[in-house]
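Appendix B. Extra example for self-study. Work through it before the problem class; the solution is given directly after the inputs so you can check yourself.
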Amino acid sequence: MLDIRLPMGLLFLVLGVILIVFGLQADPAIYVRHSLGQNVNLLWGVIFALFGAVMLWLVRRARKR
Amino acid sequence: MITFLASTTAVASSASGVTLQLATVDYLILATYFAFVLGIGWVLRTQLKTSSDFFESGRSLPAWICALGFIGANLGAQEVMGMAASGAKYGIATSHFYWVGAIPAMVFVGVFMMPFYYGSKARSVPEYLKLRFDEKTRTFNALSFAIMTVFSSGISMFALAKLLNAILGWNFDACIFISSAIVLVYIYTGGLTSAIYNEVLQFFLIVLGFLPLVILGLQDIGGWEGLMRQLGAYAETKGMPGAWSHSWRHLGDAQANPIGIEWFGLVAGLGFVLSFGYWCTDFLVIQRAMAARDMNAARRTPLIAAVPKMLFPALVILPGMLAIALYHRAPQDIALPMGADGHPDYNMVVPAMLAKYFPNGLLGVGLTALMASFMSGMAGNVTAFNTVWTYDLYQRWFKPEASDAHLIRVGRITTVVGLLISAACAYAATRFNNIMDMLQLVFGFVNAPLFAIFLLGMFWRRATGHGAFFGLLTGTASAGLMHGLTLPTGETAGLLKGGWITVHHTFASSMAQNFWMAIFAFTGCFVSTIVISLATAPTRSDEELRGLVYSLTERIRDDDSVPWYARPAMLGGVVLILTAGLNVLFW
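Solution. Structure tokens for the complete assembly:
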């Protein structure tokens, strides 16, 4: 009998971008109220996007082989 | 299985007292995830050519995907919600469900049992029973498994709808309809491959979605030291000093630990009978390993899965421990609702932690991970159900000469019917909660003795079909008898809690009763299978048993090209050493 890393990489890249954009726009007060004052949306948005990018790089590397 | 199932209904029955306010960004994250889920099924639909593609992924998947599917199928709401609740209720001893109640069995199935499941070319676990024993044993197992899977899927559906209704105010009927429609579309179009791919997606979503919860919680409580200090003080108030921060130290006496079990009952009941009965014989997880592309990949599937599994307590149990530590530090620190018994409602630990630590944005990720876990529980059960129904019941009893295309059509219709029955079960659960609890109890009776016939079937060639079939019935009766003669402390005798014959013994907790019931069921089945087998003629010749029984099967030699770290025996040994290390570390 699709390389799962392709949709997975795309999904986490998109989720990461959404979190980064929202993290840059949101009122800092929500982080004081919820996450010990840290902009967790920005931080985890970057982590999600990096994870997605690594997955897509692995797909590209596999295709080149 | 009974323990795992029970936690889902508990989650559902207590969904109240925590509300989450979603923003546009959260809905955007939810919509993005489900668009990808449906997209995967849609892309895969063109790649399904045969019934083997639909039901077995064409036996073509690499080990790492099967491994993540293997634990993903088990990563339902019971795990994410139930284990966090247990973390709050029992502390670090909840890790026994992993380091005693999962890892050894996963190593055993990978090293010793997968060669028979995969090598026999059986398409399902009941089909292996047919090859090894006879048709009646297969049909008994297939029927009980099929009923149990749609029922479990319905319970997941009910729990999801009840939870979303309580914490978000979403309409119960709409939750049932949307969740079953999404699962239906991606299973109907993409078959088992779609289910496994989505389990992989969901695995990473849960890991990355719940990790911030643990990190923020630990920062808030003052790190590991602060957590242990608060849990120590909390355990003092419960009259069990140190019991929340040590896994083994307080198991000498059932009264000295919050689980209410002594070490032998835990090791034999959970660590052997229930754990091996689930991980080594339940087609829901075995199906993922059987989708692997070769024997080595099939054997490595549960072994690779064991690595993240042994680390999962940090992700799913720790939030519960953090919640109870925060609650003990200052009840206003976490909005943990009170249960009817006057204690904190442990089942609401995860929603309460999400509400406390996740702002909009990350809240959408956490909620998506939570919903994905419920839906993977449904999807895993539905894919196992459609395979067992199509191959073991429909093809065997109604249309043995069915064409390949016909089997795919039946599989798809079965997916629709399975989800409709699941939805009916979900609605039944809203009206007849006691009947649902009763059904779970009966499934516990049927499942507990199952491992005994697999153990004897694979490692004793003299075991016969009559021995296995009547052994199963005897084991089930043993479980029922044990239940009728015992009762957990503080419960009233009755059909549901036990003691309905007479109360001969009282256990410290219902979990202890479950573990000992499993021990009795296994013993009853094991002994009676041996006795009946010796009294009946063998049903299979040695030639027919080749590849199905250990002593008659040639040992598998790993190809020289397989590196040392990818050899199942080596991998299994490393996993067991690491697990033993974790047990010692948190002794």
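Self-check: Chain A has a mean pLDDT of 89. If your reasoning did not lead you there, revisit section 3.
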